Description:
Blueprint: H1 16-22, H2 25-51, H3 55-74, E1 83-86, E2 106-109, E3 117-121, E4 126-129, H4 135-142, E5 147-149, H5 160-165, H6 173-176, E6 183-189, E7 195-199, H7 205-210, E8 220-230, E9 234-243, H8 246-255, E10 270-277, E11 280-289, H9 291-294, H10 312-317, H11 319-322, E12 325-330, H12 331-335, H13 345-349, H14 356-362, H15 370-375, H16 378-388, E13 390-397, H17 401-411, E14 417-425, E15 451-461, H18 464-467, H19 474-487, H20 502-508, H21 512-520, H22 530-534, H23 541-562
Domain FAD-binding PCMH-type: 109-231
GO molecular function: Delta24-sterol reductase activity; FAD binding
Subcellular location: Membrane
Amino acid sequence: MLDLHAPLRPKRKKQWVDFLVQFRWVVVIFVVLPISFTIYFLTYLGDIRSELKSFKRRQREHDENVLKVVNRLKQRNPKKDGLVCTARKPFIAVGMRNVDYKRARHFEVDLSAFRNILDIDKESMIARVEPLVNMGQISRVTVPMNLALAVVAELDDLTVGGLINGYGIEGSSHLYGLFSDTVVAMEVVLADGRVVRATKDNEYSDLFYAIPWSQGTIGFLVSADIRLIPVKEYMKVTCKPVRGNLKELAQAYADSFAPRDGDPAKVPDFVETMIYTQTEAVVTTGKYASKQEAQRKGNAINELGWWFKPWFYQHCQTALTRGQFVEYIPTREYYHRHTRSIYWEGKLILPFADQWWFRWCFGWLMPPKVSLLKATQGEAIRNYYHDMHVIQDMLVPLYKVSDALEFLHNEMEVYPVWLCPHRLFKLPVKTMVHPEPGFELHHRQGDTNYAQMYTDIGLYYAPAAVLRGEEFNGVEAVRRFEKWLIQSHGFQPQYAVSELSEKDFWRMFDGELYEECRRKYKAVGTFMSIYYKSKKGRKTEKEVYEAEQAMLESAYAEKTSLG
């Protein structure tokens, strides 16, 4: 996948932590995988038990749990207790960043009971779910009904709450936008204990638009109504090899879902591109197909969900040698195609896990839970990954993808690279992430009058310099990466490790609506500000308190001047 020859940088001296990382697979095999499998199985049993309950009973239990959250908030003494956060352990998050803010004094609220599907309304095409419902759970219920969320994030463990409060994307996002764009309503517990329902056109519309990307720093999301779409039993998947320079690869990617002649019949239901080297990529597109079509004579069916099957990204890579091919994959198995290998991170975690013998004998244990990987890595390995490993997504306008790929190749040289398009809608208010001003005047490829086409460029691997044993400064590389993003009107999802200063954070994101809602709904002084929640490193109580006081003082000054 990478050019590991001719060294470009000085050789790096190996340290003791290199050997811990090299042999970490021992801990993963004998500790992480068995415990992960047990947790997955017990969680599955819990989900089945929940599904046996009537929707009416689930709703009653939900209302009781919401009341517990309200009562818990009312027990807090702002002068003695710390800022409010969930009772979830710091390492339990699907992302590279550890939840360091919980190391400071804080007031915990337990949301662990909120993991039920409350209703599936086939008439209004709405799923009402609690925040800890994950993608594997919801797809297991809806797909047999020939229904699905409009955007189903690929990894099973990703939760509704994380995808709304943070960000979520999938191969259908070129049609429907980010995960939060498919939300119709949110039920939120505010800092003062009020429970409100926010929609785009009611009295809490500002809250509705402010919550996405806020990382739970405005209120507690306790349920969401999410849009459903009709689906078919199979996905007709086409894997097309592409060769050329990075600019040509980027153009082939754009043409795969945004045809230059504007023919809507050429727009696929799903699309992603995986760039394997600086000159080779595979464009993958999908169209929903019926069971009857898939089972026609001569059609190839790939039941990807079996534990012994080759990993999806490696399966697609065979198009570079065998040429373009078409196959039919069961819809739910296609949705979660990257789960077992965690995209291609599984290759770094367990270098032999993609081999046929491991897949057949132990593939049923995959994947390891990300939370357990983080819990067992220790401070030294954690710091090593921050410096020698890249897990980043960058959201950039479609027309800047080729420039971004050139920049990333020169700075990090991480392959494979994942490309996934998404619409960024022009909304009635300016949210934390928003299209470029006046984008609709340029009529660029993929854009419409109501949405600008963006692309998520995903980097999830070790840089080539690290694999060659050369020096690599991950901190400086990420800083240059973030600077480029700010200059290019791009955005960095907050699950990743960030080096942004507070000033640069608010240059990347628009904070006006966010701060307005924080003050209006009394989140300031109750919930930690998003920058301090996302910031790398330990957060001291003093640091957080001073930041919150500065915000309160500025809010008071503003109110006084208006008065």
